[in-house]
UniProtKB/TrEMBL annotation:
Top-level taxonomic group: Bacteria
Keyword Transmembrane helix: yes
Protein name: Uncharacterized protein
TM annotation in the entry: 18-36, 48-67, 74-95, 101-122
Classification of source organism: Bacteria, Candidatus Falkowiibacteriota
């Protein structure tokens, strides 16, 4: 059975969870910017990055709220939350017409780019995210 506090987080906890997700997404987006700048074939318009931050924080927060009921381990939670973010993000890019090889390559890369900071940040903020 879930505790009432798990079902209805306070505004403070919600804001802190959003901040943790946003921090991971911003760091992951900086890593992504470096990767996209590394090769001409990976180039994307600059508008891609702010859009990715907004999109990533939104879906990351939703994934966190759902996935924390399936795992209490911050490492697994980080892996699953950002798996869903990467999957949804790349589905959007597929619908926008990006090439299939690009979509699949960056689905894996985006997951790793988000996972790297999340594996450090989530355990340090376990009291907030779980």
């Amino acid at each position: 059975m879930f505790k009432t506090s798990q079902l209805a987080p306070t505004a403070k906890i919600t804001a802190q969870q959003l901040a943790v997700i946003a921090l991971v997404v911003v760091i992951g987006t900086i890593i992504d910017w470096v990767v996209h700048a590394s090769r001409a074939e990976f180039a994307v318009p600059f508008s891609y990055f702010p859009n990715k931050i907004i999109f990533g924080v939104f879906w990351g927060f939703i994934a966190l709220r759902i996935m924390k009921y399936f795992t209490r381990n911050p490492y697994w939670l980080a892996a699953w939350v950002f798996f869903w973010v990467a999957l949804i993000l790349q589905t959007k890019y597929f619908w926008q017409g990006y090439e299939l090889w690009f979509v699949f390559l960056f689905m894996f890369l985006h997951w790793l780019m988000f996972l790297a900071p999340a594996l450090i940040i989530f355990p340090k903020n376990k009291h907030i995210i779980i």
